Amino acid sequence: PFYQGARFLTAATRLAQAPPDTGCEVAFAGRSNAGKSSAINVLCHQNGLARTSKTPGRTQQLIFFSLDESRRLVDLPGYGYAKVAVAIKSQWQGLMSNYLQRRESLAGLVVLMDIRHPLTEYDRQILAWGEGSRLPLLVLLTKADKLRRGPALAVRDQVARTLRDRGEVQVELFSAFARQGVETVQHCLDRWLEI
Ligand code: GDP
Protein backbone atom coordinates (compact mmCIF):
# COMPACT_ATOMS: atom_id res chain seq x y z
CA PRO A 1 0.00 0.00 0.00
CA PHE A 2 1.13 3.49 -0.91
CA TYR A 3 1.06 5.08 2.54
CA GLN A 4 3.42 2.47 3.94
CA GLY A 5 6.23 4.40 2.26
CA ALA A 6 5.64 7.53 4.35
CA ARG A 7 8.75 8.88 6.02
CA PHE A 8 9.58 11.85 8.21
CA LEU A 9 10.66 14.82 6.10
CA THR A 10 10.93 17.86 8.34
CA ALA A 11 9.38 19.83 11.18
CA ALA A 12 8.61 23.55 10.94
CA THR A 13 7.80 26.04 13.68
CA ARG A 14 7.13 28.72 11.04
CA LEU A 15 5.60 28.44 7.58
CA ALA A 16 8.87 29.74 6.11
CA GLN A 17 10.56 26.53 7.31
CA ALA A 18 8.10 24.28 5.46
CA PRO A 19 9.24 22.28 2.42
CA PRO A 20 8.76 23.98 -0.99
CA ASP A 21 5.09 24.64 -1.68
CA THR A 22 4.86 22.38 -4.74
CA GLY A 23 3.12 19.09 -5.49
CA CYS A 24 0.31 18.35 -3.06
CA GLU A 25 -0.27 17.49 0.55
CA VAL A 26 -3.05 16.55 2.97
CA ALA A 27 -3.05 17.88 6.53
CA PHE A 28 -4.31 16.28 9.75
CA ALA A 29 -5.62 18.49 12.53
CA GLY A 30 -6.97 17.57 15.93
CA ARG A 31 -6.99 18.68 19.49
CA SER A 32 -4.32 17.09 21.70
CA ASN A 33 -5.36 13.58 22.63
CA ALA A 34 -7.92 13.34 19.79
CA GLY A 35 -6.09 10.29 18.46
CA LYS A 36 -4.31 11.99 15.56
CA SER A 37 -0.93 10.29 15.95
CA SER A 38 -2.57 6.89 16.31
CA ALA A 39 -4.61 7.54 13.16
CA ILE A 40 -1.58 8.61 11.10
CA ASN A 41 0.37 5.57 12.27
CA VAL A 42 -2.44 3.16 11.38
CA LEU A 43 -2.97 4.80 7.98
CA CYS A 44 0.72 4.50 7.20
CA HIS A 45 1.15 1.05 8.78
CA GLN A 46 4.01 2.37 10.90
CA ASN A 47 3.89 2.39 14.64
CA GLY A 48 6.51 5.00 15.40
CA LEU A 49 5.87 7.43 12.52
CA ALA A 50 3.80 10.09 14.31
CA ARG A 51 4.67 10.25 17.98
CA THR A 52 1.78 9.36 20.21
CA SER A 53 1.84 10.94 23.59
CA LYS A 54 -0.29 11.42 26.63
CA THR A 55 1.21 14.82 27.38
CA PRO A 56 -0.97 17.50 25.81
CA GLY A 57 0.43 20.61 24.19
CA ARG A 58 3.89 19.67 23.00
CA THR A 59 5.95 21.99 20.80
CA GLN A 60 3.91 23.78 18.17
CA GLN A 61 5.22 22.38 14.93
CA LEU A 62 4.06 21.38 11.49
CA ILE A 63 5.41 17.88 10.87
CA PHE A 64 5.85 16.91 7.23
CA PHE A 65 5.97 13.31 6.01
CA SER A 66 6.81 12.54 2.42
CA LEU A 67 4.96 9.89 0.47
CA ASP A 68 6.93 10.34 -2.73
CA GLU A 69 8.82 13.24 -4.33
CA SER A 70 5.69 15.32 -4.86
CA ARG A 71 3.21 14.22 -2.17
CA ARG A 72 3.12 14.76 1.57
CA LEU A 73 1.09 14.27 4.72
CA VAL A 74 1.25 16.98 7.36
CA ASP A 75 0.65 16.56 11.09
CA LEU A 76 -0.61 19.92 12.37
CA PRO A 77 -0.08 20.92 16.00
CA GLY A 78 -2.85 20.36 18.48
CA TYR A 79 -3.08 22.16 21.71
CA GLY A 80 -4.10 20.95 25.11
CA TYR A 81 -7.13 21.54 27.18
CA ALA A 82 -8.82 24.80 28.12
CA LYS A 83 -6.00 25.76 30.46
CA VAL A 84 -3.39 26.30 27.73
CA ALA A 85 -1.31 29.47 28.15
CA VAL A 86 -2.41 32.48 26.13
CA ALA A 87 1.02 32.77 24.49
CA ILE A 88 0.88 29.16 23.27
CA LYS A 89 -2.63 29.60 21.97
CA SER A 90 -1.77 32.72 20.02
CA GLN A 91 1.35 31.09 18.57
CA TRP A 92 -0.81 28.15 17.55
CA GLN A 93 -3.36 30.45 15.93
CA GLY A 94 -0.67 32.27 13.99
CA LEU A 95 0.96 29.12 12.68
CA MET A 96 -2.29 27.33 11.85
CA SER A 97 -4.04 30.25 10.17
CA ASN A 98 -0.93 31.01 8.14
CA TYR A 99 -0.62 27.43 7.02
CA LEU A 100 -4.31 26.79 6.30
CA GLN A 101 -4.80 30.07 4.47
CA ARG A 102 -1.57 30.30 2.48
CA ARG A 103 -0.39 26.82 1.64
CA GLU A 104 -0.99 26.36 -2.10
CA SER A 105 -0.16 22.66 -2.21
CA LEU A 106 -2.70 21.83 0.49
CA ALA A 107 -5.31 19.65 -1.23
CA GLY A 108 -7.50 18.62 1.69
CA LEU A 109 -7.93 18.76 5.42
CA VAL A 110 -8.62 15.88 7.81
CA VAL A 111 -10.03 16.99 11.17
CA LEU A 112 -10.01 14.40 13.94
CA MET A 113 -12.38 14.71 16.87
CA ASP A 114 -12.89 12.33 19.77
CA ILE A 115 -16.36 10.92 19.13
CA ARG A 116 -17.26 11.65 22.75
CA HIS A 117 -16.35 15.38 22.42
CA PRO A 118 -16.99 16.54 18.84
CA LEU A 119 -16.99 20.13 17.57
CA THR A 120 -15.09 21.82 20.38
CA GLU A 121 -14.07 25.45 20.11
CA TYR A 122 -10.71 24.24 18.81
CA ASP A 123 -12.40 22.23 16.05
CA ARG A 124 -14.67 25.09 15.05
CA GLN A 125 -11.70 27.41 14.67
CA ILE A 126 -9.95 24.95 12.37
CA LEU A 127 -13.11 24.35 10.37
CA ALA A 128 -13.53 28.10 9.89
CA TRP A 129 -10.01 28.46 8.45
CA GLY A 130 -10.58 25.44 6.22
CA GLU A 131 -13.84 26.87 4.97
CA GLY A 132 -12.23 30.24 4.28
CA SER A 133 -9.72 28.44 2.06
CA ARG A 134 -12.42 26.21 0.50
CA LEU A 135 -10.56 23.07 1.47
CA PRO A 136 -12.26 19.72 0.99
CA LEU A 137 -12.88 18.32 4.45
CA LEU A 138 -12.86 14.86 6.00
CA VAL A 139 -14.01 14.70 9.61
CA LEU A 140 -12.98 11.59 11.52
CA LEU A 141 -14.83 10.79 14.71
CA THR A 142 -12.06 8.94 16.51
CA LYS A 143 -12.13 6.23 19.19
CA ALA A 144 -15.44 5.06 17.71
CA ASP A 145 -14.81 1.77 19.55
CA LYS A 146 -15.73 3.64 22.75
CA LEU A 147 -19.39 3.80 21.69
CA ARG A 148 -21.84 1.18 20.52
CA ARG A 149 -22.76 1.30 16.84
CA GLY A 150 -26.12 3.06 17.27
CA PRO A 151 -24.90 5.96 19.41
CA ALA A 152 -21.79 6.29 17.22
CA LEU A 153 -23.92 6.64 14.09
CA ALA A 154 -26.13 9.17 15.86
CA VAL A 155 -23.08 11.35 16.60
CA ARG A 156 -21.96 11.02 12.99
CA ASP A 157 -25.35 12.15 11.70
CA GLN A 158 -25.44 15.06 14.13
CA VAL A 159 -21.98 16.29 13.11
CA ALA A 160 -22.84 15.84 9.42
CA ARG A 161 -25.98 17.90 9.91
CA THR A 162 -24.02 20.68 11.59
CA LEU A 163 -21.56 20.79 8.68
CA ARG A 164 -24.01 20.22 5.83
CA ASP A 165 -23.86 23.78 4.50
CA ARG A 166 -20.15 23.62 3.86
CA GLY A 167 -18.61 22.68 0.53
CA GLU A 168 -17.11 19.21 0.14
CA VAL A 169 -17.38 17.45 3.49
CA GLN A 170 -17.42 13.84 4.58
CA VAL A 171 -17.91 12.62 8.17
CA GLU A 172 -16.74 9.11 9.12
CA LEU A 173 -16.39 6.90 12.16
CA PHE A 174 -12.79 5.98 12.86
CA SER A 175 -10.96 3.74 15.29
CA ALA A 176 -7.23 3.18 15.22
CA PHE A 177 -7.64 0.37 17.75
CA ALA A 178 -10.31 -1.47 15.76
CA ARG A 179 -8.88 -0.32 12.42
CA GLN A 180 -12.30 1.01 11.53
CA GLY A 181 -12.55 3.52 8.68
CA VAL A 182 -8.95 3.09 7.54
CA GLU A 183 -9.76 2.22 3.93
CA THR A 184 -12.34 5.00 3.67
CA VAL A 185 -9.70 7.51 4.72
CA GLN A 186 -7.16 6.09 2.31
CA HIS A 187 -9.63 6.35 -0.57
CA CYS A 188 -10.34 9.95 0.29
CA LEU A 189 -6.62 10.78 0.48
CA ASP A 190 -6.03 8.94 -2.80
CA ARG A 191 -8.57 11.20 -4.43
CA TRP A 192 -7.14 14.40 -2.97
CA LEU A 193 -3.57 13.41 -3.76
CA GLU A 194 -4.55 11.96 -7.14
CA ILE A 195 -2.94 8.64 -6.45
P1 GDP B 1 -2.95 12.72 19.66
O1 GDP B 1 -2.54 13.53 20.85
O2 GDP B 1 -4.12 13.34 18.96
O3 GDP B 1 -1.84 12.41 18.73
O4 GDP B 1 -3.54 11.35 20.24
P2 GDP B 1 -2.86 9.91 20.41
O5 GDP B 1 -2.85 9.19 19.11
O6 GDP B 1 -1.57 10.07 21.12
O7 GDP B 1 -3.97 9.21 21.33
C1 GDP B 1 -4.41 9.82 22.52
C2 GDP B 1 -4.98 8.75 23.45
O8 GDP B 1 -6.12 8.15 22.86
C3 GDP B 1 -4.00 7.62 23.74
O9 GDP B 1 -4.16 7.24 25.08
C4 GDP B 1 -4.44 6.53 22.79
O10 GDP B 1 -4.15 5.24 23.28
C5 GDP B 1 -5.95 6.75 22.73
N1 GDP B 1 -6.48 6.32 21.43
C6 GDP B 1 -6.02 6.64 20.21
N2 GDP B 1 -6.74 6.03 19.24
C7 GDP B 1 -7.70 5.31 19.87
C8 GDP B 1 -8.75 4.44 19.40
O11 GDP B 1 -8.97 4.18 18.21
N3 GDP B 1 -9.56 3.90 20.37
C9 GDP B 1 -9.37 4.14 21.68
N4 GDP B 1 -10.22 3.57 22.54
N5 GDP B 1 -8.38 4.92 22.15
C10 GDP B 1 -7.55 5.50 21.26
From TrEMBL:
A single Gene Ontology CC term: cytosol
Domain spans labelled EngB-type G: 22-195
An example Gene Ontology biological process: division septum assembly
A family per Pfam: MMR_HSR1
Cofactor or coenzyme needed: Mg(2+)
Segments passing through the bilayer: none
Keywords: Cell cycle, Cell division, GTP-binding, Magnesium, Metal-binding, Nucleotide-binding, Septation
PROSITE patterns referenced in this protein's UniProt entry, alphabetically: G_ENGB
Single GO MF descriptor: metal ion binding
Stated role: Necessary for normal cell division and for the maintenance of normal septation.
Family: Belongs to the TRAFAC class TrmE-Era-EngA-EngB-Septin-like GTPase superfamily. EngB GTPase family.
Protein name: Probable GTP-binding protein EngB
Originating organism: Thioflavicoccus mobilis 8321
Source organism phylogeny: Bacteria, Pseudomonadati, Pseudomonadota, Gammaproteobacteria, Chromatiales
Gene for this chain: engB
